[in-house]
Amino acid sequence: MNEFLTWLLDAVQSVDPIVRTLLAGVAVMLETSVLIGLVVPGDTIVIVAGTAVASLAEGVLLGIAVVLGALAGESIGFGLGRFLGPRIRHSRLGRRIGEENWARSERYLRRRGGPAIFISRFLPVLHSLVPLTVGMSGFPYRRFLAWTIPACVIWSTLYISVAALAAGTYRELADQLHYAGYIFVVVILLFLALVFLSKKVIERAERKHLEHDGPDRPAVADVED
Q1: If DSSP codes are grouped into helix, strand and coil, which group holds residue 193?
Q2: With b meaning 16 or more CB within 10 Å and e meaning fewer, what string describes 190-199?
């Protein structure tokens, strides 16, 4: 396990830091735009890039690239929602996503307003649909950014920090413990399991909130100009 894991981490780290950082930013941009996030695992991309972080400066630069990529992708989604939202919703791709998910995204934004944008960054499906929905709703772009920027910063910092810490700890232990590779894998899996469970808890709480509210109410003040 140690030999394979060392080879894998070295392969990632051997990529030029600038190229690696740019690739991560572009990948996250694609993950957060045009519904690509429904099939591209942005979380995995950030974790893989994070394992190659060798210094605080590299971590900060990677974090900036990931945040900018996420903001660019979500801005693209916002713009598409503003100008092409209904057409996308009724396209073949939109129908495959399901009317239930579109309606859920609309209700979520209507009920929560700005906080829905923040929380959606951490929820499956909604993190790809909400920017489009926000664009269709008439929500001001500047307020959209005010809610999504802190969410993107927290999300990227969490993933990069855990990946870098796990990889750094493994490298320190690899020559001393033959099972250091298993420790690394367990740490990453536990982190992903914790993230998954947290998403499920938040998602369930939001579903109950929507069900408890009953029929749609007028849009909250945050959705108004």
Answers
A1: helix
A2: ebeeebeeee
CB 5 within 8 A of CB 173: no
Find out whether 28 and 73 touch, Cβ atoms under 8 Å.
yes
For 6-47, give the DSSP string: HHHHHHHHTS-HHHHHHHHHHHHHHHTSTTGGGTS-HHHHHH
Q: pLDDT per residue over 156-214, tens digit each?
A: 999 999 999 888 887 777 777 677 777 788 888 888 788 778 767 766 766 666 566 55
Q: Is residue 57 part of a domain?
A: yes
Q: Looking at the 3D structure of the chain, how many domains does it have?
A: 1
What is the per-residue pLDDT for 225?
42
| Residue in the structure block whose two tokens are 């605080």 | 56
Mean pLDDT of 49-59: 89
Residue 220 lies in a domain: no
Q: If we measure between CA atoms, which residue out of 18, 99, 98, 106 comes closest to residue 65?
A: 18
CA distance to 14, 148, 221, per residue, from 108 (Å):
43, 15, 14
- In single-letter form, the type of residue at position 222 comes to D
Tokens of 122: 């951490």
Half-sphere exposure at residue 17, Cβ-oriented, CA atoms within 13 angstroms? 12
Is residue 97, in this structure, part of any structural domain at all? yes
**Could you tell me the residue range of the domain that residue 136 belongs to?**
2-215
Average pLDDT for residues 34-51, to the nearest whole number?
74
**Contact between residue 39 and residue 30 where contact means Cβ atoms under 8 Å apart:** no
Nearest-angstrom CA–CA distance, 219 and 225: 11
